[in-house]
Amino acid sequence: MIAALGVAELKLLLRNRTAAALAVLMPLGAGAFFALNVEEPDSWPMVIALQLLFGFGFSVYVTVTTALTARRQDLYLKRLRTGAASDAVVLTGVLLPVVLLGLAQSLVLLGISLAAGAPVPERPELVLLALLGGTAMTCAAGVATSGLTGTAELAQITTAPFFFAMVAGVLPALAPDPDQRLLLLPGSGLGVLVREAWGGAGGQVGLAALSLAGWTAVGVALSLRFFRWDRRS
User: What are 49-61's pLDDT values in tens digits?
Assistant: First the structure.
């Protein structure tokens, strides 16, 4: 049942040209541009962090918010709840293709960077942690934001604060010894993990993982509070 819902959601997503462009073309285009215009070898961690940021920000966060808002407003979610599927199955089926898309794009962009000359990460397990943590954080944030979004068109506005907060957290976290207070920002954990994976000092991995887990927990808590199945008036 989850697979059937996932296939149906993927078809709906690709049928919407605007949503498909935001979810597929923009992250891939921006990520490839960053990778193909690297001049200094030391800038690769920043490039890869920006690739992941755009992948998670657009492919997962914005797309989850837009998709859930659109499906709620056209009563698609409400109709699914009247069937045999539980609430958890419905949400998993709707979110699954978006999550897989975000992970697949991140892996493709990493492959483009390696092919363009990026060094192999010294600690690949931290890259995996960044992929899983970033996906979980942005997916939870998307579910929460959808509850505050009246229409799919408004998702471009309601997602802006959290997206820019991720940008503000990622870039300073790539410094050799960033202020630990920056880990309070949602994207900082992602930036630190990328930095450490490519030869960082290794002293803030635990705090970075805790930051991603904490923001994921916040997103889940807000989802339980604000997510709606019925159409907003």
Answer: 888 988 898 889 9
